[in-house]
Design goal:
Lipocalin
Length: 180
Amino acid sequence: MVISIIGRALLATAATAVAATIWEQSPSAQAPAPRSHITIPFLASATKPNDLEFEGAECDVDASGARMTCAFQQLFLTTSPMAPDTCLVTTNRYDRVFRRDGPNHWTSSESPEGVCGLLDVATLQDDGGVRWTMELKKEVTKKEGSVACLTIKTQAEIFSWQNIRRALPCRNVQPGAVTP
């Protein structure tokens, strides 16, 4: 009977070793979890509904699902001071890295800058499909840095998937200035 118990223990150990070897050699076991790609197709300023400022992003979520890297593209239409019936079209691209802090919520914050320690914070809320909302705000982290730091007014700017259709103040468009 003792031999039988030892035999079963050896058999179980051998089976575990074989299974572990197969698992280690399995391509699916070695491959990282698939990354997911998210498109945020359109965001328009909800804070300033008359502004012709739009954004969209292409984002990749890492294998852990905790980090998302986004490439944003902005589009601005501004009225030309030289020809009021002409809008200048300007674009800008920037990247941001977000961390997941809820099932449908992501936050990105950049290091505080300047005497007042201005902290740039962006949040994304996913309400499903193309319904994304982005909030941009600056926070003063060092009010004692200067008298000016006490008077800085920080207001959040909201970009939403709602009310993206805007009236144009112009009949013509042309490229805007390119700034380095």
